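Same chain as my last thread, 349 residues:
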Amino acid sequence: MNTITDIYGANMLQRSKKIWLVLDSSGFGGIESHVEQLALGLSNAHNRVSVVFLKDYGHHPLESRLLFSGLNCIMLDGCITSLRYFLKKETPDVIHTHGYKAGILMRPISRLMGITCASTFHSGEHKDGKLQWYDLLDRYTAFLANHVYAISSPILSTIPCTAKLTDNFVSIQSLSPSFGNQVAFVGRLSKEKGPERFLYFAKIFPLIDFHLYGDGPMRKQLERNGPKNLKFHGLQVEMRNIWPNIGLLVVPSRSEGLPMSALEAMAHGIPVAAFNVGSLDQLIQHGMNGWLVKQSDLTSMASVIHHWNESNENQRAQWRKDAITTIQERYSTEKVVPQLLEDYATSAK
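reply #2:
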């Protein structure tokens, strides 16, 4: 398999850049997973990458993972003076923001300092209260970046300036296929992710083992109502040793972009059963590498779970192969990172 270096050839080292990936984060979710994959991909392409946390909220699982992989992390204290100090000290060639706080803050600073800036938009669901105003400010200042990306077509449609679609991606190096039998949910336990729907499926299939990996505001309520065949595992900082136990990933979300959990599952050969939201219709080929169900059609989703549970090994082997092939051909680090590097090389939109 070609590496990113193979794709670019010997000239890559001459084009090495100092890149900051900036976010404001206190937990681990889709954005953090995306930043981790991006940092690893850019570093493997011989760039000098630092992941910059705008504020230190205490021990952060992403910091531990990045340091374990030999990547540099900068923890700021939330003050502009600290940011200015590290900007002058590090003088990055490129700043790539993730999340509204990082985007709102870093885009004008990058413009003033003449630093190439990119911003990725990860969220498209409706916001309430203060978040609604921050979200609007984030989108209406996006034009200050040199390059603007959205991880799904619905999110792209909400950005009022020139932007382009760029898929989420995962590394496929050193991954082995899963031969597990768990029916699993992986994600934040919040309304937009629909975890109570997963609980409903567990109740109507009492002889199937359901496993829920994640934490969030709905956890206590779900645990109170969960059946005996549903096991709560809580937040998982590292899924590497868990994916091999999963046979089917269920994505019962009300809204999505392009969930990293679905990409990671399919990279391990795990088919995905999902409601048709966000850009999942670009990822999943119904009946081949997974199944797409009309939003809120619980009966059809239950039929998919039953179909998978009754399938034989030959059927599962084909789904496994198709899922892995999908990631290799479009959603791998080796496919996406070179495109970003080409963008970074130009400061004009």
